[in-house]
Amino acid sequence: MTDARPRRVALVRGHQTNSWHLRPWRHLPDRFDAVVLRTRRSWFDTASLGLSAEPAPALRDLLPSGRIGDALARVPGDRYLRPREALAGAAIVHSQDLGFWYSMQAAKYKRELGYKLVLTVWETIPLLGAYRNVRTRPYRERVLAATDLFLATSERARKALVLEGADPARIQLCPPGVDMELFGAEPSAPQPTEHLIVSPGRLVWEKGHQDLLRAVATLRRGLVETPTVPRVLIVGAGPEKARLTRYAAELSISDLVEVRSEIPYADMPALYGRASCLVLGSLPVWFWEEQFGMVLAEAMAARLPIVAASSGAIPEVVDESARTFPAGGWPELASLLAEEVLTRPPGTRATYEQSTVDRYSAPAFAERLATAYDELLAS
Q1: pLDDT for 148-160, tens place per residue?
Q2: pTM
Q3: CATH number, domain at 127?
Q4: Cβ neighbours, 10 Å, residue 334
Q5: 141 and 217 assigned to the same domain
Q6: Which residues of the chain have pLDDT under 70?
Q7: Which helix (H) or strand (E) holds 343?
Q8: CA angle 203-241-265, nearest 5°?
Q9: Which end is more exposed in the chain, N or C (fewer Cβ atoms within 10 Å of the end residue's Cβ)?
Q10: Is residue 260 a part of any domain in this protein?
Q11: Is 132 a domain residue?
Q12: d(Cα 282, Cα 297) in Å, to the nearest integer?
């Protein structure tokens, strides 16, 4: 008799479990049972996850909050404390990227527990061993050897994987999706009366929030002619909040700028609905460049205009759907805002090709996943 029970898919993300990457697994067909292994130290909002979650304690869970606990976890290396228990019974274990401790553990127990290992790969820089730290070099080697199927989120990530040494026959292109139930609904708030530029992303230097502040200061000083000067909302958590706030004051635009660390994921569509533009000003650094930019797919689903830096995978993701500027090019960003955004009524929606929006929808992503899972389990 054939076992008709859904096949278990264990999603492992360590402390990086979040609603925006994993929520689309809700749309998998009934033949798969996706379960998230959740630690107690999750860095991100998981309130809108919409998936079954099982506790999977990790070393970092036992240590103090803050930098002291982070440093203590780095000494032995973070890890799930009961990995066999967490991973047992899975037909597929699905992790992400080559250098994470949880990907290493998924690779380590694969043969013993008999599951297939799938790896989503966001990385667009082939770091290999030379540009990885001493701890993650062996992680990379083990994960490369054990992974049955690599799902590259972009063509740039696929090419980086080939240079990392992955077998091209084991790589599929599988861009992520966003939930149209959240982001595709028509804005319910009244038409806004002033321009708001939203800049979502971690509060770190490489996300380029400071370049948006420079661009707005350029507009206020009259260095670029503009019909109006917009307000700015920077959304994210990270170590740069105080510096960004101080920088806005030094640029004499404090009255125009708000930096908010916490906006629930479920509230982001309403924010996009009252904004005039999303700016993603990502800057490349030696170990990272923008790997995809989930906020770009969210903005397209919400029909929110986008102006973005041409960094990493961004040009591939937006294709012809958004205006781009050189990474670090805040004068060019100021000009694009003045010419492309601020000349229109506040809250004007963008017109994107429906095929582009559909490509990044959660159902389309779930269908890509289901097909990949089926083919892998049948092989």
Answers
A1: 999 999 999 999 9
A2: 0.94
A3: 3.40.50.2000
A4: 24
A5: no
A6: 1-4
A7: none
A8: 55
A9: N
A10: yes
A11: yes
A12: 15
